Amino acid sequence: MSIYMYDPRTMLAAIENMLPVRTFLKETFFPNTITYPTEQVDVDFFKSRRKMAPFVSSRLPGKAVNRDGFKTRTYTPPTLKPVKIITQDDLKIRAFGDHSYIQTSPEDRALRLMARDLQELDEMTTRREEWMAAQMLFNGKVDMIGEGVKDTLDFDFTNKAVLTSRAWNKPDSDPISDLRTWRLAVIQKSGMTPNAVVMASDVTPVFLNHPKLQAMFNIFNANFGNLAPKDLPNGVTFICRIAELGLDVYSYDEWYLDDETDPDNPVEKPMVPSGTIALASTNANFTFAYGAVTLIDETSKSFYTVEASRVPYTWIETNPAQRFMQINSRPLPMPTDIDSWYIAKVI
Questions:
Q1: What are the CA-CA distances from residue 9 to residues 3, 5, 6, 347 (Å)?
Q2: Minimal CB count within 10 Å: which of 51, 83, 186, 327?
Q3: What is the pTM for the complete model shown?
Q4: CA separation for the pair 85, 82 (Å, rounded)
Q5: Spatial distance between the Cα atoms of 290 and 79, rounded to a whole number of angstroms
Q6: How far is residue 224's CA from residue 246's CA, in Å, rounded to a whole number?
Q7: How far, in Å, CA of 39 to CA of 286, rounded?
Q8: Given the DSSP bridges, would you call strands 276-280 and 267-270 parallel, antiparallel or unpaired?
Q9: Residue 326 CA to chain centroid, in angstroms?
């Protein structure tokens, strides 16, 4: 039996076998994935408290203690659904990367275009997920704005600092003292120990050249840490390890095209906002949740719902002849303990 390449199940299998776009923030801090059978996603989050067991006389009954509460918020994630269109003109011209004299049929060209379109749509969706992870980690919330969509994913995050007179490019600043203070604040509030610092590109040289850091890394203080910058894949640079604080310091050089703020003048912006750092833990195990996607079956004309992180869909129009390729996704970043990381504007 022949396989119909445009069947949603066939396209879904193709997407699942694609090599993903590598995303440092999502892979490092949001390693878990959960899919929901409904469009709505229930998000449980809490703020840790350090209760101690009460002393009670052996002649008295035990003392009941309250359970720590958690909050649940229900969100309906807006759908990401980028679309590619294959027209009859696309099947007449040489595709990108093809030899000028290659002989292929329109059917073969259509299948190759489908594969490339699915890959590009998947990469666009993955880049949006990385952007959402960056917004949560460096702003404490995610503003989701688009056509017919204006919503904010906000968990009342408060671990923020904005340095002014003691900004890291000022003479009275002390980056090591600041990191020590913020690390302790996270441990006190959440019990989670930060083990990573991610900083913006423009923060890196200020941090590396700071007199306080240079003094701490001299040969007479070898136990403090290891200052050995090295490039890692996908725009990540390992800056140093501060052994005293148990922190690995990274810079992350990745950008996205912002064509929503001013559609007529799109500009590239950094994933990590200028002048900003985040202290977080790679052990926090944050999650990306995905709401279900409901579509219409082209044959039966009935609705059906798919529980997956990616849901491909295709349909045709006959006048003019066009095939539409679409990937649907409803991602939502879910930090478990809202006090388990810290954001600071340092320059």
A1: 10, 9, 8, 50
A2: 51
A3: 0.82
A4: 10
A5: 10
A6: 10
A7: 20
A8: unpaired
A9: 21
With CA atoms as reference, report the closest residue to 332 among 75, 4, 67.
Answer: 75
- Residue keyed to tokens 């299948």: 111
Residue-wise pLDDT for 91-138, tens only, equals 776 555 554 455 667 777 778 888 888 888 999 999 999 999 999 999
The two tokens of residue 36 are 């929901």
Rounded to the nearest angstrom, the gap between the alpha carbon of residue 191 and the centroid of all alpha carbons in its chain is: 23
Domains of the chain (ranges; CATH) run 24-33+108-288+329-346 (3.30.1930.10)
- How confident is the model over 14-58, as pLDDT tens digits? 455 554 566 899 999 999 999 999 998 887 765 655 555 655 545
> How, if at all, do strands 276-280 and 342-345 pair?
antiparallel
| Beta-carbon contacts of residue 312 (< 8 Å; ≥ 6 apart) | 8, 11, 12, 14, 15, 118, 325, 326, 327, 328
Q: How far apart are CA 246 and CA 249, in angstroms?
A: 10
Residue type, 267: V
Q: How far is CA 36 from CA 132, 154, 198, 212, in A?
A: 19, 20, 31, 49
State the Cα–Cα distance between residues 207 and 214, nearest whole angstrom.
Answer: 9
